Amino acid sequence: MQASEDQLKAWMTRGLDGDAAAHQLLLRGLLPVLRQFYRRRMSGREDDVEDLVQETLIAVHQRRITYDPARPLMAWVFAIARYKMIDSFRRTGRTCAIEGLEDILVVEGFEDASNARSDVSRLLDTIPAKQAAAIRATRIDGLSTAEAAARHAMGESDVKVSVHRGLKALAARVRDTLK
Amino acid sequence: MNTDDLIDSLTKDVKPMPRHALRRRLIAGLILGGGGTLLAVGAWLGFRPDLWIAMHGGAFWMKWLYTASLALCATLATARLGRPDGAALGWLWIMALPVAGLAAISIAEMAKTPSSEWMAMWLGASWKICSRNVFLLAIPIFGGLLWSFRRLAPTRLRAAGATAGLTAGAWAATLYCLHCPEVSAIFVLTWYSLGIALAALTGAMLGPKLLRW
Question: ipTM value of the model?
Fold first, then answer.
């Protein structure tokens, strides 16, 4: 199981205070995350993946004074991981193959998408639950009005009205925050 | 090496990190290199004999205010670029303020001086060596910063090299003031700035090579 940002950050903070056990937990906790990060991008070159994971762990350890506890930990870790990957591409003189590049871009897209997803769910939390459920079902999960009505035991017209009102409320909320 | 063994060996000896460890590391590097530069000013160029008297005059402080404010901004930018994430440097435009201020003083000084003496003001007695000296004096400080960077994690190497060079150049110019007897603002604006800019340019060129990690 992957440790959460909060958990990793707590280990990092304690490691910075000199707690060796917490520091070890942190590095072990980062292992699966980093392996996944590189595996997605290095398309199956398992040796390179493990080399990069090790290099990143060493950098996380040796350069941990550059971590600012006021910022998210994983953003810092990924910045290091990304640097190490680009550096290894440069070192091996690998010009990114077009397919490889696409891979990287798509995965970068995943990161953006997951950020966007959390933005959307935060926004949906601000409107009434019924409207949020209707929007989720029809606009995000891609159900038809009838399917959404069946899933949430609502009338079809109720779903339509909820979606309409919900979107209007969301638009107003977004407009407010942009002001 | 097995990754588990690696983690074990990395975490065998975990020292507590002091608060603001990054800042301390940078300052330590600056003091280390600055000491070398100070030594060079004293032993190679010699402190100006009238230093004590000069410190009671305005020109000396004008020069120091100019170079030290540039140095301070550059140091902050270097600290920022020493972190792998987030390097917003939009605020660096405030470095234009000391330059603009010194330019204003230059114009005011020249307005008070007959134009026949402008050339002498601009070139002073040491224009041929001033920029070169500032540049050479920047080398020890740049070396100190390279030591600091061994524990930092810059991801934009060229930018980090440029700000490190700028930092080294501006602090070197600040220490060079202890030797240089020139007093006119237009002299400082031209020849000091040229030396500092050369240091920054060199830093930008060397950054991708020397700051890799």
Answer: 0.86
